Inverse folding.
């Protein structure tokens, strides 16, 4: 499946993630998380039958990945495992496109709802998730380890899909 779209400035395509994407995913993940996941961790997740995801690639760019999302579906509950956009591609709508792709997939798989955890200090992500209809349903204190300061909490958010 290839889904073309035009952001504010560039052309992209969305494609299903594969195990071969693990090194590129890890590099992008490292740009946005204090405890990045390794290529092996991503490969192991992608190999699981309940896990799926999408990669955003700039058309004509052979250098790699602009962003990705990794999700899981168990019975009728979807969960965002992680989502990241490379610094050079932020503020172009990729996060929304990636989340929309997951929600379309989960809707077609008849999932009832989608859960995610987000750092309570990540203003951009919180704004996106709220625009997409997610609401806060819980909080995990000191969930994300701080690299230069104290640990921060995670907000647990939910969006009903039916």
């Amino acid at each position: 499946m290839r889904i073309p779209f035009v952001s504010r400035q560039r052309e992209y395509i969305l494609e299903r993630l594969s195990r071969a994407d693990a090194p590129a995913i890890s590099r992008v993940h490292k740009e946005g998380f204090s405890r990045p996941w390794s290529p092996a961790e991503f490969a192991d997740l992608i190999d699981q039958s309940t896990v799926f995801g999408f990669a955003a690639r700039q058309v004509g760019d052979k250098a790699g990945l602009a962003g990705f999302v990794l999700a899981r579906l168990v019975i009728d509950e979807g969960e965002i495992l992680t989502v990241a956009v490379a610094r050079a591609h932020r503020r172009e709508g990729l996060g929304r496109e990636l989340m929309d792709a997951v929600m379309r997939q989960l809707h077609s798989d008849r999932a009832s709802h989608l859960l995610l955890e987000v750092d309570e200090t990540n203003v951009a992500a919180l704004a996106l998730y709220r625009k997409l209809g997610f609401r806060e349903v819980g909080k995990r204190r000191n969930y994300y380890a701080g690299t230069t300061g104290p640990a921060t909490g995670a907000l647990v958010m939910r969006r009903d899909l039916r």
Summary: The longest strand covers residues 135-144.
